[in-house]
Amino acid sequence: MNDQRPLVIIIFIFLVGLVLLVKLFTIQVLDDSFMKKAERNAIQRIVDHPYRGLVYDRNGKLLVYNNPIFDLMIVPKEFQVGDTTRFLELFQISKEELIESYTAARKYSSVKPSTFIKQISTEDFARIQDFLIDYPGLFIMTRSVRSYPSPVASHALGYIGEISGRQLERDSSGYYRQGDYVGLSGMESYYEKELRGVKGVKYKMVNVRGIDKGPFKDGEYDTASVAGSNITSTIDLELQRYGELLLQGKTGSVVAIEPKTGEILAMISAPFYDPNGLTGADFSKNYQILNKEFSKPLFNRPIMAMYPPGSIFKIVQSLIGLQEGILVPSTTFACNKSLVACHNHPSPVDLFGAIRNSCNPYYHQAFRQIINQEKSPNTFVDTKIGLTSWREKVQKFGLGSTLGLDMNGERGGSIPSSAYYDKVYGEGRWKYSTIYSLSIGQGEMQVTPLQMANLAAIFANKGYYYTPHLVKAINGDKNNIPDEYLQRKDVGIDAKHFDLIQEAMAAALYGTANRAVMADLVIAGKTGTAQNPHGEDHSVFIAFAPKEDPKIAIAVYVENAGWGGRAAASTASLMIEKYIRKEVKRLDLENYVLAGNFIY
Amino acid sequence: MRGEADININRVDWPTVLIYFALVILGWINIYAAVYDSQNAKSIFDVSINSGIQLVWIGTAIAIIIVIMAADHRLFENLAIPIYLIFLVLLLLTPFIGKEVNGQILSIGFGSFRIQPGEFAKFATGLALAKVMERPTFDLSKGTYQLRAFAVLLIPVALIILQPDTGTAMVYFALLLMFYREGLPQYYFILGFGMVALTLLALGISNNIYLAIGIAVIIAILIMMGRKTPQRIIAFSLIGIGLIAYTYSLDFVLEKLPEHQQNRIMVLFDPDIDPLGVGWNVTQSKIAIGSGGLLGKGYLQGTQTKFDFVPEQHTDFIFCTLGEEFGWLGSLVVISLFVGLLYRLVIMAERQKNRFSRIYGYSVVSILLFHFMINIAMTIGLFPVVGIPLPFFSYGGSSLWSFTILLFVFIKMDSSRALQLGRLN
Description:
Oligomer: heterodimer
Radius of gyration of chain B: 23 Å
Order of helices and strands of chain B: HHHHEEEHHHHHHHHHHHH
Structural class of chain B: mainly alpha
Strand content of chain A: 15-25%
Distance between the termini of chain A: 127 Å
Largest interface: A-B, 39 and 47 residues
Helix content of chain A: 25-40%
Largest sheet of chain A: 6 strands, mixed
Low-confidence stretches of chain A: none
Radius of gyration of chain A: 33 Å
Shape of chain A: elongated
Largest sheet of chain B: 3 strands, antiparallel
Mean pLDDT of chain A: 88
Distance between the termini of chain B: 28 Å
Low-confidence stretches of chain B: 1-5
Number of domains of chain B: 2
Helix content of chain B: 55-70%
């Protein structure tokens, strides 16, 4: 009577097996989300942070190192406070803080360690470490923060900080994780890849309570961390320190370059800040303060501030004129003050006299000849042809675009193009009289102090430069530095034309910058004054020395300090003395600069 | 005596015995994996860990098998009712003399030797039902006989619920499958499945109003289709109202249940209902099995089952270890073994010459099928978490012994079927 029922039962049995297998197939084979969940459950990835590379100055003196800091960790379940009073005394916290920290740790986990007291100083660590054994559940975790034995060159060295959300998003390498430290400015940022090293990773297994159950697959996938490369900077610590001393209380920039290599010897942005403030736990607090400060200490003036080059640009004009054959040393123009204002000096002047006396009308007339070479009968078209050709030659001096310094944030300044004037005045509606202020480095031109120092290097080298850079060697090897810093760049001016320029620059010191003159060392220099519509003009000076075998080229800007022959020239001269003689003997001049009273 | 014939090796159904040993050994290997600690590795034979103890249980189970196979083939038929009564008494006594664990009193005994009468009573109930139902006049399509059969079934169930052990009590209802084979009318099952489906719908659909409308529409259609006599309309309407009332009462009943049981049911519909509570078991169990992939992580390489993410991993959740370390292929092997065993047992039951052996055979099929189905279904989230072991696989002496007795008493009956009197109706 029930013949078909056994069959129904057999079919049911197979159906049950089939349903289970299909469901198992979906969760085991088709759906891989469970594997990830299982890994998240049981496998902890522990990153072994590498030791960040150190930074040395050009003479091997330490500039940046890693300072160990100590976090006191707690495992609440194992923790026993014992004598509370003694505990509070030892760790120098209040009872409320103890309760608060303990509760917070407990809330996080009773078996996993969490931070109890952050960043204990080395001294406190030394004091408490012997007593730690009395407190089960407490242990020390060591981390390191950047530290600066001499608090100088903060802008050039830069700082590191926790990576931001935006940087994380842009990081295509996938190297960084939330909470990682990364170079945020200066060399720390530019040489991040070299300095950071390679993270190591340990995979360990944990059970359901988060307790360590040993390495995953016996450490098969673990990797050791590799310490970052040490970088030797081109900075001369003593020169940098001396320069910062001179610029104390002032606003301005100094860039000193070794002309033969393009190595930056000193790079100062005043006002400065203590780089030790932007490390560790106080980073955000101090950063906020610095960021709000009116004098903008975080602003990296040598590469970001832009000023019209002023009179110093007359040297570039002279060189272009000489190379073009438009000027010869004997070319003479009258100091015609109806063209452009000038100060009183003998007139007419030849080229030497024009540089030495910084004669404005001379360059007004010389520049007209450079621009209007009558390549077109139409003066508007002729000016345009002349400007385009002139601009190309100026750009070869490293002006109008970034030089390629190994630091992020470098600005390029500007050398106006004909397209610019077309836009402002309309095509065919501007001619030489519109643009004549370029002749004396005024008008729409802007250069950075770094570019000015590079100009000084070009004059010193008689026509070439190496891209200024801050890296001398990586891991002690000079060949590791980027190739572009080893390539000589010629500015397209024959070396012979520089002889007269150098002579004139050496002579220019007498009269315009008497204070800068050294009795036994020939400095070639040129003063400038960057006009400042907001107040007192900025004092500018470029120089190189010794004239016969230049070891240093320098540009100094002191803001609101008036005439270039005073603040800037004195500072430059002292730094030259410091670098070449290693010792400053002109204490009067030093005191004059330190006093900072340049306007009278 | 017919002792010689009673242990005729050639008549033993060897495929069944082989599958049994395959499952027992696979279970033992997986128990070792479940308790294995790589930082403190011990031998699989070490009796300080569960795999070592299980080996002792396996050894004693083999002794039990030998005793069963050597016994007189009529012994169990003759002792069916006394065995049943003894276990009823033991079940009755358990709450008084047993040991309390987690609010349940399941086991009796002394020292470390403890048995769970609830496990063994399945076998006793199967035997008793076979004995009661074997007479040719016993007809399950008739009310009085149905009443008798259900009485034998429900007495142990009532006693087990008192312990309280809902999971084990549920297993007894698996014997309905045997009733089905023996002629219990189909409308019982249609009604049963209908109610289960309605219950699941009522729990799964958050707003009962849709369900009520659905029931009303179906009842209305049924009324329209048949003759529209007043009695019929009233009868159908009352059924409809009753069903709607049932769906609404479920929420009420559910609220009355202890919270952990409520959650066990609700977690089926929403695994995230209580991810760290009852959802934890199912979620972690699925993660463990799901992370096994096709081929598994390799023996002793599982991380989820090793590090206690899955609770009860060596007993009720032993399938997780298998799924994690041997992957889908491991699942395939074990499920095939179970399906093969059950299929073989149906074939064996059908070839019995008397009704007693056949009924007992189907009891074995019913109980094993239920355990196998529910245990694995719960580990992969297809069924609420019910604390019942996977036969032959899970760790535990009572479990292994009771399933061994259950199975081998039938193998014994089957091996001596030539000696049975043909009494099939």
